[in-house]
Structure to design on (923 residues):
């Protein structure tokens, strides 16, 4: 019996791989998929009172969401902010990675550590440091006041959309740097030399060779910045004020002091769906774009 | 490319300035003898650091974070080690789907993970606290640990494991005598980095910790009071130094005995 | 000596749709130096891994010294392996590598010491105990791998292309050493290689494999002299194929019509039936000669030589025989060193050594 089982077991790589994967898949199913499915079903319930929920399935929460102009505008704002943050982060980080991948020869390790280190440091503290800089009595205002450039503290620095965008750009930079660097580093330099040899200008080489080859990294960076920032809570809560508020802050409120779990669940579901749709579109069009480029 | 590109170099340096300078304000102001974080600096003091010794809640939160971090990093590294081996060693049906599924917690907005765990936890009638936070952290750390381990195990000569079986060791003996010692630097790096992720994690703790604050939760609660900010700065500065130290240690370990010095954490994203 | 020391009975191994090993049966004798020879992908390594226990057969069973090992895991088998890349554990030194497999054998410390010392002497690695894998040359690593396997005194030693990573000169030395060592200790060796010269020079018997099947199993000289099919004839050494068809039998000989050359009488070792058109004659380079003048060999043809290319022991000629282009390979001893290009000359073939083979 045991021999038979062992025989069957050892016959297939599939079986071996899945037995190794089973704890991880179990974890994903139990702690992520089932809870998310439950969240989805809660979005079809109704909060009757503080402690009571009516479990009759209904689409009303989704209708509620789209009827509340605040929620819809927060969703749009969240997507808009994330989009801008993703774009700025990519545009600013790309040249840095390009430089390190192609120009740095000495002490590459040091540059790589510098590139990677912020990735691991506390997100909360990275955001918090901007509160120190942008605050009414913060670094920026006190410096300008001290230098006599302004006579009153600039209050618009804090608690605005712009503040949220700057902070998010800084806080998520590390997430763009890594995938971009890795994809650029992997490019075989002989491709670039071959393109130059075939008579392309530096500019053409970049657009026809380097950039298309780095696209996996670009798409990776888009995914790991855009998706999580749409759902970011910390930055808008610390830096955003009322102006810079995003959808997550409302979701938190529905699960907290407003206590409308079904509407919170519906909002979260809508957020997730939006994010998935947009990333699908972005990666699809980026891929199409590359095909046209090359 | 042997040519220089000084404008790109200048830009890169400015970018790193943008990346690092904001964070440096924390340690700078943590030694400033004032409640406000403004220039010019008022004077040097270590009061804010001394203050930390007396905060009971801080100690409690630190202990909570350490407990959560240790359990989460050990469990997620163990799970990730098995998964990483499956991906490196075998070609199997559904490989990409499984990989995507395990990487998902890394991509999905954390608030959604937090909220869905919150719903199921409350509906199971279980009390909020460090247990759900730990479970959430295990979910969140596993993809990170797996990426680190995959990068380490890739290129591993699996005939070493076969040689051990051939020389009379069973599966466990092989793991203990061959695989474990050879994976060890990678395992320790994964442990350290998942510990750091858990230690610094805020959103899951925010939704799931109830009244058992972890260290980031403690800081969050203090941030609301202007008077307590300097003390948060001191704590933040300590955490940044600690994190940096652990991460550098993990990097160093990851590269021990590995010819290539690639930081390909994101290579599989 | 046990004639059926290792029995391979109807073994198949399928990976998905690929039949890596396809219903193979044969036996290996005790104390034999046995080689599995074939091009890459022929199933020889899979067969070796089936013997070691790293793969389990889809069908069939395996016996070593009378006991069924088909379902045993590698650590329970009386076999040990020398891996292609040697698989020396990099985290422990040479001595610890060699002792690695002794832990579970229940030996006393003295016995362990004796075995390690003996095996170190056997592979001439005394003084290297403290070295690590990274501090050893390819040849030394190969010796460690050998010592590590032999110290367990297995019934069968499996060797997976152990000389492939060494340079030519070292490989020749190691061939001789391995052969001597095997005769000295008397352990059955199963040796996998894609190098025909290696297999032929070292082995007592060779199994030539292709597409998961055994094409021929015989002593090395038989493989060359009496190939049983076109694959073996082509794979072992150089040869010239001539299309032919059989006519009537004549005792151990048979009359054949060789295309463009005429009718001849040749040996019929494989008992090929009469009136078969799907046959070829295989002529080894040393059975051919190129000369200026007509010879008195069995076959002598006038030909025009368009081009020659010198290959060392052999020379390739691109010739035109009665208006038809052919390529023939001839032993370099069998022609005088003058340039033949664009000249008329004579190709002679000795019928003695022709092998008549059937097409599939």
């Amino acid at each position: 019996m045991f021999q038979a089982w062992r025989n069957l077991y050892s016959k297939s790589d599939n079986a071996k791989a899945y037995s190794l994967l089973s704890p991880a898949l179990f974890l994903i199913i139990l702690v992520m998929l089932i809870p998310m499915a439950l969240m989805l079903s809660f979005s079809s319930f109704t909060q009757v009172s503080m402690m009571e929920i009516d479990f009759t399935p209904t689409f009303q929460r989704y209708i509620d969401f789209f009827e509340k102009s605040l929620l819809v505008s927060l969703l749009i704002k969240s997507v808009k902010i994330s989009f801008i943050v993703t774009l700025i982060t990519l545009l600013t980080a790309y040249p840095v990675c390009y430089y390190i991948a192609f120009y740095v020869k000495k002490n590459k390790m040091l540059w790589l550590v510098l590139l990677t280190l912020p990735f691991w440091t506390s997100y909360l503290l990275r955001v918090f440091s901007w509160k120190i800089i942008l605050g009414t009595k913060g670094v920026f205002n006190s410096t300008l006041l001290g230098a006599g450039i302004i006579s009153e503290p600039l209050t618009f620095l804090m608690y605005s959309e712009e503040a949220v965008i700057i902070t998010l750009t800084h806080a998520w930079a590390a997430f763009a740097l890594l995938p971009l660097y890795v994809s650029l580093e992997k490019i075989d330099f002989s491709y670039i030399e071959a393109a130059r040899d075939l008579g392309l200008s530096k500019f053409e080489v970049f657009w026809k060779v380097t950039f298309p080859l780095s696209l996996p990294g670009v798409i990776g960076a888009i995914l790991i910045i855009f998706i999580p920032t749409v759902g970011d809570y910390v930055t808008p809560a610390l830096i955003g004020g009322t102006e810079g508020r995003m959808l997550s802050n409302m979701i938190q409120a529905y699960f907290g002091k407003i206590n409308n779990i079904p509407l919170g669940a519906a909002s979260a579901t809508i957020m997730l769906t939006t994010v998935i749709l947009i990333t699908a579109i972005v990666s699809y069009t980026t891929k199409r774009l590359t095909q046209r480029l090359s | 490319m042997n040519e220089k590109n000084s404008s790109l170099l200048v830009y890169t340096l400015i970018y790193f300035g943008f990346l690092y300078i904001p964070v440096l304000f924390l340690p700078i102001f943590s030694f400033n003898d004032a409640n406000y974080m403004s220039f010019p600096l008022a004077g040097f003091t270590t009061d804010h650091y001394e203050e930390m010794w007396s905060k009971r809640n801080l100690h409690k939160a630190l202990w909570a974070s350490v407990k959560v971090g240790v359990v989460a990093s050990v469990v997620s590294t163990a799970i990730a080690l098995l998964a990483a081996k499956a991906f490196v060693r075998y070609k199997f049906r559904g490989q990409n789907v499984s990989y995507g599924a395990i990487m998902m917690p890394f991509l999905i907005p954390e608030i959604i993970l937090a909220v869905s765990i919150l719903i199921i936890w409350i509906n199971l009638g279980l009390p909020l606290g460090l247990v759900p936070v730990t479970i959430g952290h295990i979910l969140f750390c596993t993809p990170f640990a797996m990426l680190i381990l995959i990068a380490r195990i890739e290129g591993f000569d699996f005939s070493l494991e076969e040689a051990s079986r051939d020389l009379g060791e069973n599966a466990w003996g092989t793991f203990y005598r061959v695989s474990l010692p050879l994976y060890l630097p990678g395992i320790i790096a994964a442990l350290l980095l998942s510990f750091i992720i858990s230690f610094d994690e805020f959103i899951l703790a925010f939704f799931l910790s109830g009244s058992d604050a972890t260290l980031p939760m403690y800081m969050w609660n203090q941030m609301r009071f202007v008077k307590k900010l300097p003390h948060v700065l001191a704590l933040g500065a300590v955490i940044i130094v600690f994190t940096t130290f652990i991460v550098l240690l993990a990097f160093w370990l990851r590269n021990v005995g590995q010819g290539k010095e690639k930081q390909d954490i994101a290579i599989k994203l | 000596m046990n004639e059926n020391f290792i029995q391979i009975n109807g073994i198949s191994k399928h990976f998905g749709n690929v039949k890596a090993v396809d219903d193979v049966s044969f036996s290996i004798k005790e104390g034999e130096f046995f080689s599995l020879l074939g091009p890459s992908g022929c199933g020889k390594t899979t067969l070796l891994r089936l013997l070691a226990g790293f793969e389990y057969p889809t069908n069939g069973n395996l016996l070593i010294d009378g006991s069924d090992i088909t379902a045993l895991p590698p650590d329970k088998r009386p076999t040990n392996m020398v891996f292609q890349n040697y698989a020396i554990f990099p985290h422990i030194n040479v001595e610890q590598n060699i002792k690695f497999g002794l832990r579970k054998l229940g030996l006393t410390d003295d016995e362990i010491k004796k075995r390690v010392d003996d095996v170190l002497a056997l592979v001439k690695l005394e003084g290297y105990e403290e070295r690590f894998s990274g501090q050893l040359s390819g040849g030394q690593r190969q010796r460690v791998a050998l010592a590590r396997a032999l110290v367990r005194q297995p019934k069968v030693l499996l060797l997976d292309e152990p000389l492939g990573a060494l340079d030519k000169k070292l490989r020749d030395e190691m061939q001789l050493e391995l052969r001597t060592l095997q005769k000295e200790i008397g352990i059955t060796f199963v040796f996998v290689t894609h190098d025909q010269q290696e297999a032929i020079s070292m082995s007592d018997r060779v199994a030539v494999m292709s597409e998961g099947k055994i094409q021929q199993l015989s002593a090395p000289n038989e493989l060359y002299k009496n190939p049983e099919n076109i694959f073996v004839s082509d794979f072992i050494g150089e040869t010239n194929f001539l299309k032919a068809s059989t006519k009537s039998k004549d005792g151990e000989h048979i009359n054949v019509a060789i295309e463009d050359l005429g009718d001849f009488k040749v040996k019929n070792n494989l008992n090929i039936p009469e009136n078969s058109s799907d046959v070829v004659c295989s002529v080894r380079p040393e059975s051919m000669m190129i000369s200026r003048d007509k010879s008195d060999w069995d076959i002598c043809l006038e030909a025009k030589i368009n081009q020659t290319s010198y290959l060392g022991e052999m020379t390739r000629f691109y010739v035109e025989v009665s208006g038809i282009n052919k390529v023939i390979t001839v032993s370099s001893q069998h022609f005088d060193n003058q340039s033949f290009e664009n000249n008329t000359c004579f190709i002679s073939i000795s019928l003695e050594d022709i092998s008549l083979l059937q097409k599939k």
Q: What stands out?
A: Residues 93 and 177 of chain A are 6 Å apart (CA to CA). Chain A has one domain: 70-293. The two ends of chain A are 58 Å apart (CA to CA).
